[in-house]
## 1
Amino acid sequence: MRTGIATVCLSGTLEEKLRAAAKAGFGGVEIFETDLVTSSLSPEQVRRLADDLGLGLDLYQPFRDFDSVPDELYRANLRRADVKFKLMARLGIDTILVCSNVATASIDDDALRAEQLHGLAELAADRGVKVAYEALAWGTYVNDFEHAWRIVADADHPSLGTCLDTFHILSRGWDTAPIEGIPGEKIFFVQVADAPKLSLDVLSWSRHYRVFPGEGQFDLPKFLGHVARTGYNGPVSLEVFNDTFRQSDVERTAVDAMRSLIWLEERTAKHLAVSDAARAAGLGETDDGAAATVPLTPAQLAAASRAYPMPLTTLPQVAPPSGLNFAEVKSADGGAATAELERLLGQLGFEPRGEHRTKPVSLWTLGDARIVLNRQQARGVEPGISALGFDVENSVSAVARALQLKAVPVPRTSQANEEVLQAVQAPDGTEVFLCQDTLWMEEFGESGPPGGGSPSGGAPDPAPRAASLDAGSAIPTPMPTTPKSLSVARIDHINLAQPWQHYDEAVLFYSSVLALTPQPSQDVSSPAGLVRSQVMQTELAAGDRAVRLALNLAPWVQADSVRGTVRDTFKEHIAIAVPDLVATARACRARNLTFLAIPENYYEDLDARYGLNPEFLATLRELDLLYDRDADGEFLHFYTATVGNVFFEVVQRIDGYDGFGAANAPIRHAVQHSAQP
């Protein structure tokens, strides 16, 4: 598939944008008119630079407000177009994007529009230019791609075709199946963008909230599958208007953009393989969400990637991770905060498993939960999450896939008789290790995972489900009083803070590299503002999930009166699942663990909402425990104090509870905010 990107997607000058696009591996670019007009480079210099970089100049855009106008204005528009056609000849661009009229349209007549576009195509043909007509979602008279295609067909000129833009089609909720009724040779250009689903006027939505494929909620593989079936084999180009992307590092954004098209190619091949088989069986079309879960053999995927004129690149196939192998916290060697962190781990019940035989790294375990405390190159570093290990079936394939998706490898020195662990860097700098087993623990003197973890890297058995803790005030439920074994304790989820520039990039990284499924994002209130939370997780299996990862975009607040000085208000945490939270909390209290102190008002509100058994409510209050429930089950949890930039949560999931206690998040944020110096 020929990949492209519009220069409007990127920050910087036109030269910087072209260089970044080439470095990221794009085949071509769309020149956005404003980028050329404001550039110090002449059209000839732009053309030479693109040639030197190996970039095609695929489209000049936009040409606005041409059709549906009186004859006098139409003649002026032809003159304006002729000037642009001559400019395009200097650039070496042969296709121009013409948008349906918004500002000057005054005559609602399809016959007139077809006549005017035919006249434009005649002029374009004389200049060696093709015209791609696009229906803007907010066009005055033409805002539907099928309507635009009918006009193009009526105009009947070889130099006139249509442009299909995913945002203009999917933002309006149009059915994409009719795309297959357009001959591939009359589709002159395809533009793709994703977006979150928002209740917003479509123009504002388009201008500020588009994202790259895989970072929003549009079904782009289904759209591109329809396009592929037409026989189209031209550029598939990104056109994304996003305030954050245009403020971010140009090279990094270009890489994120390229990753999104690699993801889209593969997902489209999967979609076609599943949907074509479903059609052959008389079952109809399949959406991307369903198609992505169907297992395919490499041969099936390869056949789908070559089934149509547009070739689709595929990647090494990987299953979602089967568990969290470990979490690593980096902290300064010999620092007071490191000593405090080690004390906190001990109070939680973690046992020290010794030092690494060649590195200043220690291992702490609680059942199948493994925390690596890394003191390497950490001078002056406050404790913070620095790496995550994920259990995968085949680490070689997983790493190969990650690298093809433009992930940055993490250099790591291994000595003789040490496990070679492969890792890539997530957008926030967290190192992501792809682990096939736990043999690395032998380097700490352990011959295998404590607590019965699978040496092959498989997920440990889920924590046993407890009986309902509270059935409401009508039927008092006895509290658990007998401590249970912690041998099945494990990492339940990880909560990571994301830089504002790379939040969307992180969603695509974890979904494409690790095959985690993004959930709808939600906002949680805190004293500093709203925290946007995006959960990435594996599918539900045997009543539980192997991996849960929460990505949080935290607010930034003014630290002092100096303009532009900000500090991050959000800390990260590691959540440990145990089978009996009350017993665990009592044991932690006996070891002098400091709990996050929950205000009395919370428990009064909890009683009002749920009518809990008084004895049970008293236990929650006594131990600073939080409680939530939904239609599927119940949730108990508590938090520790924060050490540096990290704290811990201990949780118990009961029956089918699958959330994170979101209703309690504002309580935690408020208490942590009050505790800040």
## 2
Amino acid sequence: MYLTDRSAPPKDGTGRSRERAPGRRVAPVVLVLGTVSLITDVSSEMVTAVLPLYLVTTLGFSPLGFGTLDGVYNGVSALVQLTGGHLADRVRNHKLLAGLGYGLSALCKPLLLLAGSIGTLGTVLALERTGKGLRTAPRDAMISLSTRPENQGRAFGVHRAMDTTGAMLGPLAAFLILRTAVDGYDAVFAVSACVAALGVLVLALFVPGGRRDARPHDPGVRDARLDDAGVGDAPLEDAGAGDAPLEDAAVRDPRLEGAGAGDARSGDAGVRDAGLKGAGVRNARPGEAGSPDGRPPVRVREALDLLRLPRLRALAGCAALLGLTTVSDAFVYLLLQRRAGVGEQWFTLLPLGTAVVFLLLAVPLGALADRIGRRTVFLAGHVGLLTAYGLLLWAPATPALTPLVLALHGTFYAATDGVLPAALAGLVPEQLRATGLAIVGTSQALARFCCSLGFGAAWTVWGDGPALAGSAIGLLCCAAVAALVLRPAGGTR
């Protein structure tokens, strides 16, 4: 999805052709997708807020059993993300794949009413996460493709803030339902299903879509993607890229030297997308058959060639490494309940605290990442999470413990959840954007799946304290490695 079409290069060298409508830093599609995510997250977080307590206290799951189910809950989504991302790029219809994902998740919500065993619950949750995996990369691709590179952090921050508003309202709704309904858990699952259906309806009616509209590849037209990436005549500073390699890292990729990055003109009909020339991914030429816009479908080989990009490999690898030591939210809340003595009736409000902080900080931290460097903000978020682990391990059970841990937990998400996909704007070309997002998202989610299994097993064998201490030490080591791997090529920021 594209916001503008540049019909001619600037005549006066001022670069005015690169400007969007005055004051519009966030595209309308971002706001609509944010609304869909808000509604869907109300539904999902209603279930997520009650699920740990429901499984452990009502169904009697052990920490190992809960960790296994929680791992499945996150791992299935990771496995499906690659499929959803590649299919969206292949059929050039991000809305279709996102809609299928939202629809499948909505259909699974009422099935929770029938699930009473670990096998049945695992199957239903796996299907629900399959829907999430299908929709995540196409949705983020629509956000990324509708936003200029220098505003990627802000756009994802706005979307994540709206998404988090739903995450804040979901636990609150679950709390009120549990206090008023006779069959509290069943009522939560039923209301969640209705809200999920509303989200699918909003997506179908208000998200502009169908097939992706391609900008014309006129030989006399400057390639807007090169302009948007800060490649061409415009200096790097105009693209909003910082020193950190998490930013428009493809701009600094040495292979760009031979890709015509210095003075790229669309008059060169064979211009390839910057950063992928050496990876074998071609920029489709006009008139090629295979899709309504004259471009051939994206092949699996082209998608796999993304892995030859050093910066993409580094980003995916670091996301996976940090994910291996990121304890799942459910375990964090269970640990906080035990350490701070939070009553069961208040347990569903713990995610609300995280969501409030996330909501308040998502946009400011996204904009800050655009200015000072996404690497800096991304790693700072993990430092906040490490501090939360330290408080859970060693801080006394005072009234301040709960708000402090939740504030750090929310800050972690605000500094990482939107910044990570924003970092891909300069790494992956438009026609493979969903696939690139899926690669990084899958690596992170699979690592967190392994972490859930390992943490649940460690808790069962050694107890919650040693399990969390091991995760904290691992996170410290992994963050240090990520800081070295993702360091800027020409600086230390």
